[in-house]
Write a structure and sequence with these properties.
Elements lengths: L1 H30 L1 H27 L11 H28 L7 H28 L4 H33 L5 H19 L2
């Protein structure tokens, strides 16, 4: 019976880890909302770029020979930490204050503001910051925006419109950045593939 009891304790310990991590995350979110969202955004953005590199490596069928570009996840971590997390935090607060829930069609208005104003501006900011972090000049930025902005914005509208509808209508305010970050994990993988 002793092995079965120790197995039960081990399983209970495994279940306790996610609960403790969630409790710690909620505590940090309450105490340091912007910093917690910035750190989460930075980590998940870097992970998204790493994922894009792994997908690209598999697609090219490289065995162990190709090295991963560590500067890519670093750039995405910087972007996520300094831009995605804080800007998203304040944008969602702005939406809640500017379009209170009691306004008729509040969810639709919030979605329209996000899709028509925030999405294009945030995507352009992404192009500008990544261009800067890659050490490229203004001509390279102009070329990248000309060739990639419109296709990326169209894909953004296709992918993010249903996500943001759910986010602004059903996800509690304090979890909206996290929810968007989880989807952004794959979105950044797509954006990173555009840069190749």
């Amino acid at each position: 019976m002793a092995p079965a009891a120790s197995m039960l304790r081990a399983e209970a310990g495994l279940g306790a880890l996610p609960r403790r991590a969630l409790a710690q995350y909620l505590r940090l979110l309450r105490l340091y909302p912007v910093l917690t969202k910035a750190a989460t955004s930075g980590i998940l953005s870097a992970l998204g770029n790493f994922l894009a590199q792994m997908i690209e490596k598999r697609r090219k069928k490289e065995n162990g020979s190709g090295k991963l570009d560590v500067s890519g996840p670093l750039r995405y971590a910087i972007y996520g930490f300094f831009f995605t997390g804080p800007l998203s935090h304040y944008f969602y607060l702005f939406l809640e204050r500017w379009v209170p829930p009691e306004v008729p069609l509040a969810g639709v208005l919030k979605l329209l503001l996000d899709r028509v104003l925030f999405a294009p501006a945030f995507l352009l900011l992404f192009f500008v910051i990544m261009n800067f972090l890659e050490g490229r000049d203004a001509a390279a930025l102009a070329a990248r925006v000309r060739s990639g902005f419109w296709p990326a914005l169209q894909m953004n509208w296709r992918v993010w419109t249903p996500v943001q509808f759910i986010n602004v209508n059903y996800v509690p305010l304090q979890f909206r950045v996290l929810f968007a970050n989880m989807v952004a994990l794959f979105w950044y993988a797509y954006l990173a593939s555009l840069g190749k």
